[in-house]
Write a structure and sequence with these properties.
Layout (H helix, E strand, L loop, with lengths): L3 H6 L1 E3 L2 E3 L3 H28 L4 H22 L1
Antiparallel strand pairs: 1-2
């Protein structure tokens, strides 16, 4: 399977493809993995303690916003 993150971050200018910096691709992968881990932690927190943890949710929202900002900013 092709690297969909790299493909999504690739710019196309006048029929030329400009690949993203590998550090950007690794950073996005790390951020997505961290968001998934935090989501799992929040689900476990709700399942076992029966409470909502706003700090974990804030971290999830912050990381998700960062990823979306990277995708939008890279395309312009």
């Amino acid at each position: 399977m092709k690297d969909w993150i790299k493909k999504a971050l690739t710019r196309r200018i006048r029929q030329r493809e400009i690949p993203p910096d590998p550090r950007l691709v690794y950073g996005v992968k790390f951020t997505i993995a961290t968001t998934l881990i935090l989501s799992t932690l929040e689900i476990a927190h709700i399942a076992f303690l029966g409470k909502w943890n706003s700090e974990i949710f804030s971290a999830i929202i912050g990381l998700s916003g960062t990823v979306m900002g990277i995708f939008v900013g890279q395309k312009t």
